[in-house]
Each structure stands twice: as C-alpha cells, then as structure tokens.
C-alpha cells in the first residue's frame, strides 16, 4: 500500500496542471453563489439555483475525473525526452471537454443517486437514533439558532442537562459514523464511472464490490486519506489568523485534494490491472510501440515500479 502513497506524489508532482480545473471550478462556483445570494428568494429561483449547481458539479467531476484518469494512464508511458513528457502532461487539460462530453450525464445521475442514498441513510439512522438514543429535547429552531455562531452553540450546550449532553454526544457520534461509512463505500464510485461503466447505479454496486474484494487495503487507504484531510483542515483552521499563512495553507489544501484523487485513481487502476505492465511489455519485446501512442504524445508502456 505504501508504494501507492509515494507513487501518487510522483504522479501529482509531474501533472500539477490537475489543480487548474479544481481552482477554476471553485472560483466560478463562489462567484455564482455570490451572485445568487442577491437574487429574490422564491421557489423558482431556488430550483434554478439547485439545478445550476448540479450541472456545474456534474460537468466538473466528469471533466476532472477523466483528466485524472488520463494522468494515471500517462504514468504507464515512457518518453524519449523530458520535454515530451511535460508536453503530454500539459495536454491533459484538453481532456476536460472530452470528459464532460462523455460523462456529463452519468455524473448527473450519480450525483442525484448520491444525494438520494445519503438522504435515505440519514433517515434510517435518524429513526434508529430515536429508538436507541431518544429525543434530545431541543427544538429544530433552537438548533438552527445555535448553529449560527460558536457563541450561540456554546450557550445551548451549557444549558443542557448531563443526560441531554450524553444524548447529544451519542447523536454526534452516530451522524459522524453514518457520514464516514457512506464516504467509505462511495470512495470509488466516480472512478468506476470513468473506468468501467457509465451507468451510475451499476457503477455504485461495482465500486462497493471492489471495496469488499480489497477490504483491508481499502480501509488502510481510507484511514490514510482521513488523516490527510484532518491534518490539512487543522492547518487551515490555525492559518485563519494571518492572510498570507492562510493563502499558503489553501495552496497546500488544493495540492493534497488533487493528491487524494490521484491516489484513489492510482490504487483502483493498479489493483484492477496488476499485470497490465507485464502484458504491455510482452506485446512490445523490441520496445517499438510508437504506433500506439495516443493524442497526449505518449510512447510505449513500461513497467511501473512503485
């Protein structure tokens, strides 16, 4: 497993252009949300807002995930000169519109299914919580007001009895467990769509099957990603005290976000195709596979040592 951790750093560093779509998407999304806040609030405007955001996220994931997949494929290739490899890496940006055209609708379907399954899982968890934990004794209005600021939340918590605090911790633990479990079983969903099948429902079941087929290593991978996410989030929290430090921490955040996605794609690709390098080498015994190079300027496949 460690070989994937180090290899993902290599792929990310060699294809740092992968950060470009991510930064542009977050920038455009923040602009759109800022403009949407000034629009009149009614049923039609809220519906259009949700549909637009859905389409934006679907297009982004379709293009970006396909770009990351091509970057992982690129890692299998050998180049005569470093300039050729750098040119092929830069040309990865051309894969974004290709990915959008190819996988936009599958990712729209996957996002809708993702939201629906999450809502169903939360509902089931809520019903189980009512049965085993019980009601907290706080109204939804009070909870909403408490979430508006840390001071209001502290005031609410201090007003709870010891029994209510126990229940509050139990509810928090249960909800955190639900989100962790759901994040784990959907970890390879997007990878499955761009790698195996465009059907989002079939891709979900196949990705879950892949997880249980590689259960122990998948848990190690998920724990590693969780540690990275916690560490970067903690760094961003402390970096709020200084604008320059915060800017640097955001760059680190973007880098590791790309690294995590590359790591997931790399792990999935290598575990699904453990002998692909050997087969490719056997098909090109003389090392003359230039005719198989794709539009990225790639040369023949090579053995990848991790």
Summarize the structure.
The protein has 306 residues and is mainly α.
Order of H and E elements: HHHHHHHHHHHHH
Low-pLDDT residue spans: 277-306
Distance between the termini: 10 Å
What about the largest sheet? none
Count the helices. How many?
A: 13
Backbone structural class: mainly alpha
The number of strands is: 0
How helical, in percent, are the residues? over 70%
Principal-axes shape call: globular
Give the strand content.
under 5%
Q: Report mean pLDDT, rounded to a whole number.
A: 84
Radius of gyration: 23 Å
Number of domains: 1
What distinguishing features does this structure have?
306 residues, disordered C terminus, mainly alpha, 76% helix, 0% strand
List the helices and strands and how they pair.
Elements: H1 2-14, H2 19-36, H3 43-74, H4 82-90, H5 95-132, H6 140-146, H7 150-158, H8 162-185, H9 189-195, H10 200-213, H11 215-239, H12 243-272, H13 276-283
Give your account of this protein's structure.
It is a single chain. The protein is an all-alpha fold. The chain has helices spanning 2-14, 19-36, 43-74, 82-90, 95-132, 140-146, 150-158, 162-185, 189-195, 200-213, 215-239, 243-272, 276-283.
């Amino acid at each position: 497993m460690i070989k994937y951790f180090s290899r993902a750093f290599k792929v990310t560093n060699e294809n740092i252009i992968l950060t470009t779509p991510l930064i542009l998407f977050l920038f455009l999304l923040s602009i759109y949300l800022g403009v949407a806040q000034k629009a009149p609030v009614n049923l039609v405007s809220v519906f259009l807002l949700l549909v637009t955001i859905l389409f934006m996220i679907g297009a982004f994931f379709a293009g970006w995930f396909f770009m990351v997949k091509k970057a992982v494929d690129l890692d299998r290739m050998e180049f005569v000169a470093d300039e050729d490899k750098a040119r092929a890496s830069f040309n990865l940006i051309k894969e974004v519109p290709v990915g959008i055209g190819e996988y936009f609708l599958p990712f729209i379907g996957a996002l809708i299914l993702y939201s629906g399954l999450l809502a169903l899982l939360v509902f089931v968890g809520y019903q189980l919580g009512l049965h085993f934990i019980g009601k907290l004794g706080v109204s939804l209005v009070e909870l909403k007001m408490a979430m508006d600021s840390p001071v209001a939340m502290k005031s609410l918590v201090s007003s709870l009895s010891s029994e209510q605090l126990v229940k509050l911790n139990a509810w928090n633990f249960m909800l955190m467990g639900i989100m962790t479990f759901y994040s784990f079983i959907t970890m390879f969903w997007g990878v499955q769509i761009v790698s195996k099948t465009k059907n989002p429902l079939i891709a979900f079941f196949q990705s879950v099957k892949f997880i249980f087929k590689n259960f122990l290593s998948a848990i190690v991978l998920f724990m590693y990603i969780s540690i990275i996410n916690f560490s970067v989030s903690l760094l961003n929290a402390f970096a709020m005290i200084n604008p320059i430090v915060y800017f640097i921490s955001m760059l680190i955040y973007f880098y590791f976000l790309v690294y995590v996605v590359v790591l997931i794609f790399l792990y999935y690709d290598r575990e699904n195709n453990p002998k692909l390098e050997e087969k490719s080498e056997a098909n090109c015994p003389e090392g003359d596979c230039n005719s198989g190079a794709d539009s990225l300027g790639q040369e023949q496949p090579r053995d990848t040592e991790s």
